[in-house]
Amino acid sequence: MTRSNRRPLLxxxxxxxxxxxxxxxxxxxxxxxxxxxxxxxxxxxxxxxxVGYPVYIRxxxxxxxEPKGYRQGAKVPMALWLFNNSHDPVTLVSVTAAQGNxxxxxxxSTGSSVAPSASNAPACSVPVSPSAVPVPSGIVxxxxxxxxxxxxxxxxxxxxASPSRSASxxxxASTSASSSPSPSASPSPSAxxxxxxxVTVPAGGCVELSRRAAQYLQVVxxxxxxxxxxxxxxxxxxxxxxxxxxxxxxxxxxxxxxPTSAGPRPSITE
Length: 270
What we know:
By secondary structure, the protein is of the alpha+beta class. It is built from two helices and twelve strands; from the N terminus they run αββββββαββββββ. Strands 1, 2, 3, 4, 5, 6, 7, 8, 9, 10, 11 and 12 form a twelve-stranded antiparallel sheet that branches.
């Protein structure tokens, strides 16, 4: 074979090698994207679903107290979101917690918001990723869509089984204004809160339970000290409008939230 015939063959081989290398690089790049596309960023709190029913708990945690954590006998407020992706309202009726082998009492307390905490606004649709849910109590973002700031349509019954606070006859506005001095549906037996837990989540809606919302859950009379690296085992129980009992199954380990800001630097003495 002459030199003039070898040159086209060599040029063709080089071109084929370049095309093959480009294809391999593209395949490797595509593989990396496919492997990392489903990775969700870490967010504080625990997310779970009730067994066999589309009721979700998102970003459940214990609010941060101080660098030393909580002392024995302290109150520990929780923060979480409840999402109901079914066609019927569901009601949170029980929250059991334990610190090690010791059970602790959980009560329902009144938060800082005067607006109802239940909403069926479009923002309450259950996101695919738990990290897309706003973290309660302003831990991460200040523009989180609070359930108490829902659209005016949330004031309608929207299939909720819980009675409205203004359930008096529409023709007696003066009577409803003077019938009860407190907007709470049930009086709390103590300053800590009510041991009767009843929070209704409307069909397709959500409820925020935190100190910035209308209501929140908190542990009272902590059996022992709780450090910021510790957690509490908590189980949530629900009932449907038809009387079906729902549960999150195994207890969830609720961690203590990280602080909202960095602590002061320790002083250096020479």
